Amino acid sequence: MIVNFNFSKPVKGVKIANSMPKPINFKAGADTFEKNTKEKDIELTVYNPYVNTVFHIKTPVDLTKKQQIVITSKYSRFAGKKLVVDYDPQRYDYIFDKKSNRREKTMILVGHDERKPNEISYHFMSRSLSKEYGYVHLSLHRDPRADLKESSFLDRELLINYPKHKIQGPRVIVEYLQNWEDSKKGGVGRLADKLAVKYCIENNIKPVIISNADRGSHVAHYLRGKRFLPPEKDTSSYDYLAKNYGCTNLNKILAKLLKDSEKNEEKIDLGDLGMFPMYMPEELAQKYVKELESEKKL
């Protein structure tokens, strides 16, 4: 398949945050689901260790058939990078449209980088593939200790063990999670969590899922069921919580803030709270496991 593509300017990546700059918007076609083999505009967020770059691709797509879209680049910062995106008309799920107050079907494109076999991305698209609502990028770590020694990009807090929270051994890290239209679409985070559990199952490991919550996303992740891991002593995170809240358990802090906000009908203001590691509790992971098993039976 021949793919014609143009590269938009790179946008700086922000880990697990809803405040990430939006990409250049391209006019989307009608959200219909019929056979159409004409060239279609596909907007994808292709992950890079240093930046997130939005690829504006034009490629013939038959929405009724499975197919692969191969993306390559001649630019030096993407030298040798080839991304294969799999499309399957039967691979879809649902997000939530806030305006109509109804659920909405989203097609799921699966991205693979040939140089990084232990990474995968899921792109949540409109039914015509003309618009990307959001995406999640995951990485598999069978030996976290070895990965910590070999990579300078990974945060130590995401790879160490937390026995009290049943976080040990192999795990999946949510590298990036983005909802491009947070004010209009909901359910992107929940769908990303479910796919992270699915990725664990497909790789025959226990669903142990870690991520970082950055500015503007702490409350959303917490309300979805994720929980914060304890900060290590003698770190800036530990000192910040102790100084500003008199407590270093961010879960207790947030629970109290949520309770107070409901009582006073005020929005929660976490100020300059920065990046904190989170995990998916075993109970929540098992909930997604059962949901996936139920879907498989249908």
TrEMBL record:
Domain of life, source organism: Bacteria
The name this protein goes by in its record: Uncharacterized protein
